[in-house]
């Protein structure tokens, strides 16, 4: 029995070594690979991808750019959507190629009802091997956080630059399990059973150890916030720097602070409809506010974001149902997959920006709402707390529904008198401009170009 297990692992090792040799042999010169399995998703991570692509083209490196993506849409369709959503025009560019990743589905959480992170880790390894076997490159830029395959790239002689949006696993996640607190990745069924929670802690510690090894195989890690850097620095043994993500704040800065089109008591939330964004917290907060003071019955909450797949659609339906259960269905509006111009129109009529994700790695939407002159209420954790908002100086911070309700009341009641806060918020977010990102990215990537 033992020799069969040994033989099995020797076969896997042999396949890996053979694959890495093939990748070395078939390497394309003057080519830069960018790994982003969901290149057409339309979120903040995708903005990073397309600004990186745009900057590499403008640098006139003479390199072809290969994007490893699992999206089935054609190249021009993806580039048209990029232009529509982000205002980045790459349509018709001949230096951009796409390589289809059939194994993208292997990294989706829905495939692994148990041991989800381990399944995604192994799936990410397999996907990286597929990508590099299909198209081998001298330099790989990972803008999606697929660290599990860095060791294979390293074994194949490929230099890896990682743009890290958030750690795959962190000590914060372990702490939540230790405290037996339910969350989107720690169900109440597990959180309420002490023995199972202990087992999950050891499972997380093993994953943390693996993540520290494979992550250290990258040559440079660019982290999107101080919070992300602090977590990555504790795990990876490599060069680590902070590079704030590109925020398209110019158009938001052009919105008048006290525009006549503003609708009183209107809050907007911008973000993909994923569980970790915790839109339900926003619904509960608005319901509490109205219960506390009926004068806010005329308030509005605009939930704006992209719905990418069936899982997201189910999430939106669940939120609609929760709004009904809380008695605020008339106050809540859903705006799905809107264009950039439609987003601007919705921002312009709003007075308050709302963000509720716990330990958000950065918070591009937070920056955009501050630039637009909204009184922005963000979660008192992660990037918004450490890098973006100073409470009652450039915005407001909250954690629990009651705190969010209090902040909403304060913002709605004092919007016109909080001129200083709005001005200081705009001054703060100037550091997160697209121009600053492009300049810093060029300075960091220049030594890695083939």
Automatic annotation (TrEMBL):
Single GO molecular-function term? GDP-Man:Man(3)GlcNAc(2)-PP-Dol alpha-1,2-mannosyltransferase activity
Q: Where is the Glycosyl transferase family domain?
A: 264-428
Enzyme class label: transferase
Keyword line: Endoplasmic reticulum, Glycosyltransferase, Membrane, Transferase, Transmembrane, Transmembrane helix
Predominant location: endoplasmic reticulum
Transmembrane segments in this chain: where? 6-23, 110-129, 149-169, 202-222
Q: What Enzyme Commission number(s) does the record list for this chain? A: 2.4.1.131
What is catalyzed by this enzyme? an alpha-D-Man-(1->3)-[alpha-D-Man-(1->6)]-beta-D-Man-(1->4)-beta-D-GlcNAc-(1->4)-alpha-D-GlcNAc-diphospho-di-trans,poly-cis-dolichol + 2 GDP-alpha-D-mannose = an alpha-D-Man-(1->2)-alpha-D-Man-(1->2)-alpha-D-Man-(1->3)-[alpha-D-Man-(1->6)]-beta-D-Man-(1->4)-beta-D-GlcNAc-(1->4)-alpha-D-GlcNAc-diphospho-di-trans,poly-cis-dolichol + 2 GDP + 2 H(+)
The record's section on SUPFAM superfamilies has:
UDP-Glycosyltransferase/glycogen phosphorylase (SSF53756)
Query: Where does this polypeptide localize?
Result: Endoplasmic reticulum membrane
Q: Among the record's GO biological process terms, what is one?
A: protein N-linked glycosylation
Q: Where is the ALG11 mannosyltransferase N-terminal domain?
A: 30-236
* Gene Ontology annotations for the cellular component aspect, listed alphabetically: endoplasmic reticulum membrane
Describe which pathway this protein belongs to, using the record's wording: Protein modification; protein glycosylation
Q: What does this protein do?
A: GDP-Man:Man(3)GlcNAc(2)-PP-Dol alpha-1,2-mannosyltransferase that operates in the biosynthetic pathway of dolichol-linked oligosaccharides, the glycan precursors employed in protein asparagine (N)-glycosylation. The assembly of dolichol-linked oligosaccharides begins on the cytosolic side of the endoplasmic reticulum membrane and finishes in its lumen. The sequential addition of sugars to dolichol pyrophosphate produces dolichol-linked oligosaccharides containing fourteen sugars, including two GlcNAcs, nine mannoses and three glucoses.
Family statement drawn from the similarity comment of this UniProt entry: Belongs to the glycosyltransferase group 1 family. Glycosyltransferase 4 subfamily.
What is the name attached to this protein's record? GDP-Man:Man(3)GlcNAc(2)-PP-Dol alpha-1,2-mannosyltransferase
The record lists the organism as: Blepharisma stoltei
């Amino acid at each position: 029995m033992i020799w069969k297990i040994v033989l099995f692992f020797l076969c896997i090792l042999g396949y890996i070594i053979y694959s890495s040799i093939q990748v070395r042999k078939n390497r394309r010169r003057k080519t830069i690979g960018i790994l982003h399995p969901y290149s057409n998703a339309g979120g903040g991570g995708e903005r990073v991808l397309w600004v990186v692509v745009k900057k590499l083209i403008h640098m006139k490196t003479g390199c072809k750019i290969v994007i490893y993506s699992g999206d089935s849409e054609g190249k021009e369709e993806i580039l048209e959507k990029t232009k529509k959503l982000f205002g980045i025009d790459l349509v018709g560019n001949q230096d951009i190629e796409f390589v289809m990743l059939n194994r993208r589905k292997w990294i989706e959480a829905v495939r692994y009802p148990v041991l989800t992170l381990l399944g995604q880790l192994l799936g990410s390894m397999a996907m990286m091997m597929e990508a590099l076997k299909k198209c081998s490159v001298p330099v790989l830029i990972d803008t999606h956080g697929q660290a599990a395959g860095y060791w294979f790239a390293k074994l194949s002689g490929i230099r890896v630059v990682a743009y890290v949006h958030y750690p795959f696993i962190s000590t914060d996640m372990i702490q939540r399990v230790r405290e037996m607190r339910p969350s989107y990745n720690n169900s109440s069924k597990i959180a309420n059973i002490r023995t199972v929670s202990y087992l999950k802690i050891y499972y997380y510690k093993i994953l943390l150890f693996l993540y520290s090894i494979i992550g250290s195989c990258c040559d440079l890690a660019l982290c999107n916030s101080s919070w992300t850097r602090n977590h990555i620095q504790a795990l990876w043994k490599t060069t680590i720097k902070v590079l704030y993500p590109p925020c398209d704040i110019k158009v938001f800065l052009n919105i008048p602070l006290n525009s006549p089109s503003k609708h009183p008591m209107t809050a907007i939330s911008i973000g993909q409809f994923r569980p970790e964004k915790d839109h339900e917290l926003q619904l509960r907060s608005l319901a509490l506010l109205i219960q506390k003071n009926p004068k806010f019955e005329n308030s509005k909450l605009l939930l704006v974001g992209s719905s990418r797949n069936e899982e997201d659609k189910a999430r939106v339906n669940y939120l609609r149902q929760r709004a009904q259960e809380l008695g605020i269905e008339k106050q809540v509006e859903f705006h799905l997959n809107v264009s950039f111009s439609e987003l601007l129109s919705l921002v312009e009529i709003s007075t308050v920006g709302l963000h509720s994700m716990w330990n958000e790695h950065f918070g591009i939407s937070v920056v955009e709402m501050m630039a637009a002159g909204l009184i922005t209420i963000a979660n008192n954790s992660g990037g918004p707390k450490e890098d973006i908002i100073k409470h009652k100086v450039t915005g407001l911070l909250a954690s629990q529904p009651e705190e969010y309700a209090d902040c909403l009341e304060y913002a709605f009641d004092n919007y016109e008198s909080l001129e200083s806060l709005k001005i200081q918020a705009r001054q703060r977010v100037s550091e997160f401009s697209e121009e600053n990102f492009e300049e810093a990215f060029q300075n960091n990537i220049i030594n890695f170009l083939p």
